[in-house]
TrEMBL record:
Keywords: Kinase, Transferase
Kinase recorded as keyword: yes
Entry-linked InterPro entries: GK/Ca_channel_bsu, Guanylate_kin-like_dom, P-loop_NTPase
SMART domains from the UniProt entry: GuKc
Pfam families noted in UniProt: Guanylate_kin
CDD domains: GMPK
Domain of life: Bacteria
Domain named Guanylate kinase-like: residues: 14-192
GO cellular component, one term: cytosol
A GO MF term: GMP kinase activity
Family, similarity comment: Belongs to the guanylate kinase family.
Protein name per Swiss-Prot or TrEMBL: Guanylate kinase
Gene3D superfamilies per record: Guanylate Kinase phosphate binding domain (3.30.63.10), P-loop containing nucleotide triphosphate hydrolases (3.40.50.300)
Amino acid sequence: MHTEDELLTTEPTSCLFVLSGPSGTGKTSLAQAMLANDPQLAYTKSVTTRKPRGEAERHYEYVGRDKFLSMVHGGEFIQWIHPSYDEYYGTLRAPVEEAVAAGRDLVFDYCPEGYLNLRRFFPDNTVGVFVMAPTVRELRRRLAGRNSEDPAELEQRHRMAQLDFAVVDQHDYHVINDDFDRTLHILESIRRAEKARLSRQRQVLPKYARQSRVALLRYYDPAV
């Protein structure tokens, strides 16, 4: 027998929160800041064949090309991409499936191709935020300031960004990273709103149904 004391709280389904966009927009720094601010949010390392850009880049697992392709053939990735040269990037299947099954949230920093691939597998869990610099010129400046690519690679990054711009409308949100703290606050607000979305709280509707009365909606004319 159900009473009025039944709790109407619920555990929302897992949210795969993807910061998507071209290289140089600050996606990785924002994702790391979100992790630092919320111990309930988790991150799964991407696997890549490219060389590290510095000692601080610990959010990747670095492997050789042959090892990466072996992992592809072994079905170890939930999604993987080959955006340029001999660079490959992939997301391991097991940690994502475990997080979704347990209702845990993950944050990712992806190029749009990676985001769209992940959304194909988890359309109900994936939230895409396209993160961009204030201008294309500023994006170029940030990329050049990293000192990690030669001129040919920088030009390729710019061409890839133009391809990314063609799928902005495939995302759920669009955020300009012109002030880091402000952008971080916006992203955290988006995540909180997504956790409150009714479609992520499926368990709560039957609880309301047990306490509700079905009735027709009536509209009253106050002049009558």
